[in-house]
Amino acid sequence: MTPEFAPASDATLPLWAVWSDDPLPPDAGPWPAAAGFKAQAGQICLLPGADGALRGAILGLGDRARAGRDRFALARAQSLPAGDWHLAALPQGLDPDEAALGWLLGQYRFTRYKGTPGPSARLVCPEGVDADRGLAIAKGEFTTRDLINTPASDLGPDKLEAAARALANEVGAKVEVICGAALLKQNFPLIHAVGRAAASDPRLIDIRLGDEGPMVTIVGKGVCFDTGGLNLKPGGSMGLMKKDMGGAATALGLLQMLARSGDAAGLRLRVLIPAVENSVAGNAMRPGDVLASRKGLSVEVNNTDAEGRLVLADAMAYAAEEQPDLMISLATLTGAARVALGPDLPPFYCDDDAAAQAIQAAGMRVADPVWRMPFWDPYEAMIEPGIADLDNAPSGGMAGSITAALFLRRFAEGAGRYAHFDIYGWQPAAAPGRPKGGVGQAARAIMAALPQLTGR
Questions:
Q1: Where is the Cytosol aminopeptidase domain (predicted)?
Q2: Residue 222: inside a domain, yes or no?
Q3: Is the same domain home to 160 and 76?
Q4: Which member of 260, 270, 309, 444 is catalytic?
Q5: Is 133 a catalytic residue?
Q6: pLDDT above 70 covers what percent of the chain?
Q7: Is 203 a catalytic residue?
């Protein structure tokens, strides 16, 4: 589906948004009090006219002091009756850009397999808000959510390639794909090893947009389904593995945001997606195998379920050969990150203090929070096994997100700056602007930080 604003019209209905300590609109009359309206978060009071027809509504925003992460409060207004609405007044402390984007994000529904979107409540874009920019961000987020929510039966590596080609065509980007046996011929042994047991061939999708300015390369993990390989996941852990391409989905959504908003101007953008399915078959990689990598480092596979860092490693080594000014990896990589920070706050790793501060500050500013974690050098020994250069799954289980980041950093050498995001890509329970299901994380934070990260 496509996010949209309503056209300005005299026929739109007024919507008042109020914090719980705000006075009610003066012309609301006695009806809100009689209806028990307390302006609790998400509470809606419909206002009847003298003839009984709907004349407007009041939306409760809750406690102003406790809004916190729940910044897209206006997304709750999607439960209003279908029709076109305008904000009659914007309460103090509610940013108009956030209000507009919150409304747009709240429009999202995944209806590919069930139901048809019916008429919905639409908002006239508030005065002073850049409507095109808000729509670009929301559209990119919708793309990310649609890709994550689509099951692997309809989104294997081949279908992910088709989606990437369609998006590239939309924004005027160029695409090259290396697939199947060609991965071995062109020296991408890790990508091939992870994906060779699947029905759909592994591939590396390479998208480029722009031909001048700082080079920004985004590498997104595209594991379309992860069984765990021969280290088979239990059923309870496999159930959400259609989301294991959330890094790729977020990278594509971010590309769409940057291109449609105009923020891609003056940049050379490159998106690399190693697209595979980690399956079980007679030719699957085995625990204990030692694999070559594009960079020349050997990797001992001590857990076939730690495959994401393998496919990223080859793609990142390829990207680093071009010495980009900034390289970013996005991946649903470790359960350890969720144990540490939960599903809503993805950690990121960056050795450059100024860049890290810019990313974290931008994330808070645009309500897309991320949290810096350390590339802790004393743990380097944990990723160095006895018989190979690197270990893809250090024993002991401690510091799992950090050791995965350290593993990836070995393949980022050559990039001017590098940041790795260990995202979850899934919203376990509905929240304002974030329905249950696939969700983009870190894209808006990166987008907001890019001017500082690239010196533009």
A1: 303-310
A2: yes
A3: no
A4: 309
A5: no
A6: 99
A7: no
